[in-house]
């Protein structure tokens, strides 16, 4: 598909989406601001759509997407902003089955900019070789890191942090045990 065709297709889909949205809700969030009830840190994978997974409407989730749901200062700053300024009471790290970034880490890939992601995932999963278990360990690692980073900063407003794994085949969502 040509580049211009892709842009036109995206523009047409955006127009359809705007028409399908609840105009009153869009107006309320535009004029009164967003009031998300959760921060979701998830993978950039196009099969993982937090708003659909959690049945959330416009303005209900503050979503931070990055391949492999890894954390760096940008994601931590986004969490801090949403917790402190938008008063989100919950942070969910959402891993998923079939994660390409976890697969790349398991395969030992580390070239280019992807290495920043796979290095972090390898740190999280250690010697784990099972893809599902690696996905769970990666999400749990991010939960632990968030707890450590915000433990001494109650002013950041980070209250509850949980990890979950979404199964891209079955649609099942399973929260990890603390």
Protein architecture, described:
The chain has 178 residues and is α/β, with parallel strands linked by helices. The chain folds into two domains: 1-32; 34-175, Beta-carbonic Anhydrase, Chain A (3-Layer(aba) Sandwich). It contains seven helices and five strands; from the N terminus they run ααβαβαβαααββ. Helix 5 crosses helix 6 (114-125) and helix 6 (114-125) packs across helix 7. The radius of gyration is 17 Å and the shape is globular. The N and C termini lie far apart (46 Å).
Broad shape? globular
What would you say the CATH architecture of the largest domain is?
Answer: 3-Layer(aba) Sandwich
As a percent range, the share of strand residues is 15-25%
The termini sit apart by: 46 Å
The main β sheet shows up as: 5 strands, mixed
């Amino acid at each position: 598909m040509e580049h211009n065709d892709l842009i036109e297709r995206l523009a047409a889909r955006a127009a359809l989406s705007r028409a399908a949205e609840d105009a009153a809700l869009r107006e309320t969030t535009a004029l009164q601001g967003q009031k998300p009830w959760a921060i979701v840190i998830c993978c950039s994978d196009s099969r993982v759509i937090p708003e659909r997974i959690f049945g959330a409407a416009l303005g209900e989730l503050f979503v931070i997407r990055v391949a492999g749901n890894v954390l760096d200062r940008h994601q931590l700053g986004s969490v801090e902003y949403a917790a402190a300024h938008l008063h989100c009471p919950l942070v969910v790290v959402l891993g998923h089955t079939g994660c390409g970034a976890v697969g790349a880490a398991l395969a030992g890939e580390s070239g280019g900019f992807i290495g920043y992601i796979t290095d972090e995932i390898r740190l999280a999963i250690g010697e784990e070789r099972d893809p599902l278990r690696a996905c769970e360990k990666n999400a749990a690692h991010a939960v632990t890191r968030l707890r450590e980073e915000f433990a001494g900063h109650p002013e950041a407003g980070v209250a509850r942090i949980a990890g979950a794994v979404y199964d891209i085949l079955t649609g099942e969502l399973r929260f990890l045990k603390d």
